[in-house]
Structure formats: structure tokens, C-alpha cells
């Protein structure tokens, strides 16, 4: 009963964003003080004398790094701030710490926290050698084709790339480290504010004891000649970051933001303090390695100033300057890790709602999907499947035989995803174990387990920073466990892991709770969600070491991409949320988190049939494609809308399945190079500045497919922007082409999804309807060759078993297709495992469609060569394009088709 009251209360309060629950910058002590500092320093202009300078005598350089001391000159004393510069992945890294005295009386770990271990553990970054020269005013460091000049007084760092200055740190003198001090100490400058130094006056966090007092860090980073920046998710906003001089800064603080508003800078569930700035010649990545509450101000001019402010931690910063955004992504992802190659099934369609209420309900939805011919791969269980929200239990009266259900689903290769949250109800074996073994997050007294409220009522939270928590978490998912049993088609959804605490300040933990290692929650807040979904990932690996786990997380941080997919949380069933989902997903991709999606249909409320249909037409392009709905919303499985909607939705979902080879190949590329799966136009063509504001259109990987989903109610026309002079083909009406950079108007009806194929691309599809993606494994391919103006095209295809890690042993095919001089060739990358190659011998190319040949051809000879053999294939001409029918070549071999026109 109580739980239902809690749910109703939550639903009631969830109708619109409750801004008053969250601090504005003015209400956040450290943001307030640093912004005040910025205003005062700017006001003083040239007359401002910064208290910070580099002690030239302290500099010590070797082949890999330079170290030294920055001094903060107080009235009567000096604070020492040791710094280190080194080069990681040929990029400039700066770390600044503080030598603290008098802090050893604290029970807390009194060092400044370094988030690098948490965020960089998946990466493979290497250090480079440097050389240096110094005089009494500055130090110059040379590395690769870059250099950095560190000016001692005023302290300022300029980073040069290919001889040109690109980034200046502390050009505006906003560098500020609030040193450790006692409350009675009076060490303030007149240009500083003392707002909330030792107390928090925000109504919900007055109890914050701020045991280490003010500890914030701030720095301005100027990106020269750049007025477009992208990244720092998660915000429900446009893709190109906006100037914040007249608003609050963008905030990075993982919170459960009830029904967030579209186009807002409020914090959300995840935080990635990484952005990319862009101009036609250069791209710059800024990675602010910090896991505490963080705000970013942006002041756009010809050069853009960004002002980064974090509540505590060391200052750790990587500046990546390269020629284009792709190169920046590759460097960033070698620091933080790349997306795990997903299990193939997880790229299929996910059917979810809060809640499918019983095994029979699940069976009913499952059988209707087949009845209506809608492919799907997973059905999801939200929190109601549990016994009183006790995770790892089942509500037995409604779910008497989960293993049996899992087996039934497995007959058509479907999976079940069940939710497991980090709040654990007080008073059953899981919480008892966690509490009695010291594996929960604790109160500031270090002894008392923290109790707060979430779905189950009174709960404790697992401390996934405690290494011992992992082995216990493993047992809950292991083969013998009641919960997961031996079913490898049970996967996991980690929700509410910001963490969400219904009675906590700003809907989350009090900042002065403590974690393993004597760290305050304040220091690691933004990384808690990641530590939790990682624990789940490793527990699933422990269950089946050669099975790629699928974990969906709501909260995330840099590096989350290596172990989880994310979605954008609680949106609503309105057109505005449909629109904003795209820039949100694109922004995550830019920030290295490409496996992203949004609730199709909108979580809160009830979509009109038109909106639902349009949402599917947009949603099939989300790298993570899941329909989801709030417990109070009406049922909206695709057959409920009726005709013509059901058929349109069915065909839309089928299109997703037809294009799975394209999507999987895009993920492969992302897992190798760190590129987004969905790419804004400017990401592919950064030379063209006219593309910098377009965020409702995208390319799918490197395939050449360009999509502009319809997101306007009642649309009869739509416009699409051609980013370059190349010829573009309508993907569905093969005779229709568009050409000429700029806006092109299209007529649309409810069935239209504007999808164009760029001339020069080869798209691989599997066109047969199957009930799930795993049943498509041996289906034949159709190749669509879209010729460019030179009559050439190319494409890539990646195939592996889609479930195991055997690809690491060479069990995969990487195929390059090329069309030139009227020859289509397929070439396999060498060094592949023979056994895997043989297993695909029966997978054929059943059709090759060549679009863009001069349309006066009448007679064609399609000569096929595979290995030693040559034969002639049938062909037809349809609407001016050529179809080579059943050429009988295997996808697992190299071959050629010579078109003699
Ligand atoms: C919040 C999540 O964002 C939503 O998707 C889920 O349905 C509810 N929690 C209930 O678990």
C-alpha cells in the first residue's frame, strides 16, 4: 500500500520539472563564488592582479613530464599547488593539486580526489615524449606537432597546434583553487565572495556539514576562432552549446530530474565533462576529468570562453587539438574507452512499459508481436515484477516460473530485460548482507548506514566503490541464483542510479555521505551511476564470461560507453520531446556515448496516433531503440493504434531490421575508432560551417545514409539540407535524386521517412522479415550500390557471431565493397578465423541493385567471379536501375561482378 502511495506521489509531482528542487548557480555556494570571482575579475580588467603564479625555480622537466609549483599568494602566507604537465595520446594534460596541511584530523580522506582512475580505466592511452626550454618568464614544452607555453606571471598556458595558438588556459584569470582552511581563518580577497563557504543555505541541503569547507576549482579555457561547441551531456537542449552569459551555466550533476523540460540547461541523469569545439581547420576537445558537481559557463564570440567550475577534486584537464572531430573522438575514446561491440540482439526493437504485469501479460504481448508481423528482440520488466520492490525477487503470484518464461522467449530468440536498481529495501537478505558486511553507503559519522527513500520505501544503497561489493553482486546474478538462473537471455536495466533518493537534497544523496576509501560522496557523485552499472556488467560477465552483457543505464559518466547503453530518461508524449531527443542523442555520441536512445512514444502521457507513428519513424534510427511508457499511460503497443498506423509502424520497425547490417557495422567502427553511430552533418563534413547548427538531421555511421525524421505535427512538407554538392538518392523512390548544397523541400505524408543515400555509397541490407534479429543470421544480403558522379561507390560490412567475444580471436568478417569501372568487388580483410568464415558459407548475396548508371542501357552482361569460377547472372532493368538477380556469391568469400553495359 505504502509503495503505491509513493508511486502516486511521484507521478503527481512528476507533471512538470520542479526547478525549485535544484540549485541555481546563485544558490550553489561554489558556483556562486566562482561566478562572482569571474564578474569581479572581469570588472577589474587590467588592474586585477591574480594571486596565482608559477614558481619558476620549482620547474623540473624530464622526457615525459614537467612538474612544478603554482603559488597562491594569500595576505600572510602561500598555498602550494603542485602541478604536472604530460602528454597523453599526443594531447596536453595538466594536473594541479593542493598541498594541504592540518587536514589529518579528519576521518575523511583529505586528499583532493582524482577522477582519472575512474574515468580512464577503459582506455589505452599512451604517453609521449616531450622536450622543453625555459627562461625566467616562461616554460615551453614541445610534443609531436604541438607545443605549449606556460607563462609564469600571470599564470597562463597557450597550446599551439601546427605552429598556431589554439587554446589558452587562464587567459581571463579565472583560475581559482579554494584552498583548505579553517572556518575562523580570514583569507578572503576583496574580489571574492564568502557565500556559503562553510554552510549550505539551500533549503534541502542545510544539513550538509561541508567538513572540508570550500574546495572548489575553476578555470577559463579559451578556444580560439571557434564559436561552435558540442557535448557536455546530459542536457535536454540544442546540440550546439549556447552562450550562458544571460542564463545559468550548463550544470553537470547526476540527478533524477522529474519530467525534464525540453531546451533547458538543468542537470540530468548523466554527466560527461567533455566537449568538442570546431572550425573548418581545427577541432579541439576539452576533457575536464572531474566527478564532482560541475558547472560550465560559455561566452561565445569569435573566440569562445568556457569557464569550468567544480565543487572539489584536483584540476585535471586534457586538451586535444586535431584537424577534425573524428580525430578528436579517437583520442578521447582512447582515454576513456570505446563502446563495447553490442550483442546483436540489443540493436533490435525493445518493447517496454511500466509494467508488463504478469507472465501472461508478457506472453500476450509476445504473441501479438508475431501476429502483427512486428519483429522484436526483447520484452522488458519494470519494477512491478519484484516482490515489494525487493530486487532479485519475483512477485511469485504473477511470475510463478520466470525460467520457463525465459525458455519460451528463447524459442524465437527473444530476451527479457529486468530492472535492478541500486536502492535496496531495508529488511531482506540482500540489504541485510550489504549492511552487515559494510557494503553500503554511510552517513558522515562513518558508522551508520545511510537510509533514504526510493521505490521500495526505506532503502540502503550498495557502495559500488567498495571492491568487495563486486563479489557479492556477482553472486546475485550467478548461474545458481534464483534471479538470473542459468538463462543467458536475461539482461539487466539499471535505473535510478544517479542515485535517485526521493527524500534527498536535489533528489539525490546528501553530499557528505561517505564511500569506501573514506571519500565523501561530494567527490565522486557523478561517477556513482557508472560504478553501479559497471558492477552489473562485470557480474554478468562473471555469469557467462564469453557472452556480451547488455546493460541499460540511466546515469552515466565518461567511460560508461564501454559497458552500457543509455537512454534519455523520463520524456513525455509531445512533439517537443520527439524533437529534442535527436540533439540529445547526437550530443551523447559526440561525448563518446553512442549507444543512446529515448523512450519511443514518450514516457509520460499518451501520444496521438500520429505522434506515436512519427516517433517510431525517428526511433528506428536511435542506436538504442526502445518503446517505453509510464504506468499511468494507456497501452500503446503498435497494434493498438489500428490502421493505417499499425501497418506503418510495422513497416518502420521492419526497416530497422533490414538495416541492422548497417547499424552493426557503424557500431563496429565506433568500437574501433570512437566515432558516434549517429553523426551530425558537421561531424562528417567539418569544412562546411553552414552545417554547424543543424541538429535534426544525421548520417548513420559511415554508410552514407542521411536521415531527417519528420517531427512536425500534420506535416505535408519537410526540408532536408544537402551538405555537399554530391548527388543524393531517395532511399525508397530509387529513381528520385537531389543535388546541390542547401535546403531541398520534400513532400511528405504519414508514411514518409526522409532518407537519402549519398552518391558513392554501398548499403547492405537483409530484406526478409524474421521475428527477431538472431533468426536473421543466415539470411541473404541485398546490396544497394548508389553511384557518385564518377560512377564509383564503396561500402563496408562487419559480421561476427553477434553474441560472444570470439571476434577478439579473429572470428569476424570485415568486408570492403568497391564499385568502379563497372566492376563491383567484395574483398575480405585477411587473418580471419577459418572456422567462422566457413560458418557463413551459406549466406549469399541474393540481389545487387545498381542505381545511377546512365539510364540508356538496354543490354547488360553480369559476369560473376568467385575463386576460380566464373558465371553469368540474370539481371533486370527497373525504373532505370539495374538489378543483378541472385548472383549466387557467398558473403564469406571475395568475389567480383563485372557489369558489361
Ligand atoms: C524511472 C525511469 O526513468 C522509468 O523509465 C521507469 O519506468 C521508472 N523509473 C520505474 O522504474
From TrEMBL:
<keyword id="KW-0732">Signal</keyword>
<keyword id="KW-0378">Hydrolase</keyword>
<comment type="pathway">
    <text>Glycan metabolism; N-glycan metabolism.</text>
</comment>
<dbReference type="InterPro" id="IPR048395">
    <property type="entry name" value="Glyco_hydro_31_C"/>
</dbReference>
<feature type="domain" description="Glycoside hydrolase family 31 N-terminal">
    <location>
        <begin position="83"/>
        <end position="297"/>
    </location>
</feature>
<dbReference type="InterPro" id="IPR025887">
    <property type="entry name" value="Glyco_hydro_31_N_dom"/>
</dbReference>
<feature type="signal peptide">
    <location>
        <begin position="1"/>
        <end position="17"/>
    </location>
</feature>
<protein>
    <recommendedName>
        <fullName>Glucosidase II subunit alpha</fullName>
    </recommendedName>
</protein>
<dbReference type="InterPro" id="IPR011013">
    <property type="entry name" value="Gal_mutarotase_sf_dom"/>
</dbReference>
<dbReference type="GO" id="GO:0017177">
    <property type="term" value="C:glucosidase II complex"/>
</dbReference>
<dbReference type="InterPro" id="IPR017853">
    <property type="entry name" value="GH"/>
</dbReference>
<dbReference type="GO" id="GO:0070880">
    <property type="term" value="P:fungal-type cell wall beta-glucan biosynthetic process"/>
</dbReference>
<dbReference type="Pfam" id="PF21365">
    <property type="entry name" value="Glyco_hydro_31_3rd"/>
</dbReference>
<dbReference type="InterPro" id="IPR013780">
    <property type="entry name" value="Glyco_hydro_b"/>
</dbReference>
<comment type="similarity">
    <text>Belongs to the glycosyl hydrolase 31 family.</text>
</comment>
<dbReference type="GO" id="GO:0033919">
    <property type="term" value="F:glucan 1,3-alpha-glucosidase activity"/>
</dbReference>
<feature type="domain" description="Glycosyl hydrolase family 31 C-terminal">
    <location>
        <begin position="674"/>
        <end position="763"/>
    </location>
</feature>
<dbReference type="Pfam" id="PF13802">
    <property type="entry name" value="Gal_mutarotas_2"/>
</dbReference>
<keyword id="KW-0326">Glycosidase</keyword>
<keyword id="KW-0256">Endoplasmic reticulum</keyword>
<feature type="domain" description="Glycoside hydrolase family 31 TIM barrel">
    <location>
        <begin position="340"/>
        <end position="666"/>
    </location>
</feature>
<dbReference type="GO" id="GO:0005788">
    <property type="term" value="C:endoplasmic reticulum lumen"/>
</dbReference>
<dbReference type="InterPro" id="IPR000322">
    <property type="entry name" value="Glyco_hydro_31_TIM"/>
</dbReference>
<dbReference type="GO" id="GO:0106407">
    <property type="term" value="F:Glc2Man9GlcNAc2 oligosaccharide glucosidase activity"/>
</dbReference>
<dbReference type="GO" id="GO:0006491">
    <property type="term" value="P:N-glycan processing"/>
</dbReference>
<dbReference type="GO" id="GO:0030246">
    <property type="term" value="F:carbohydrate binding"/>
</dbReference>
<keyword id="KW-0325">Glycoprotein</keyword>
<dbReference type="Pfam" id="PF01055">
    <property type="entry name" value="Glyco_hydro_31_2nd"/>
</dbReference>
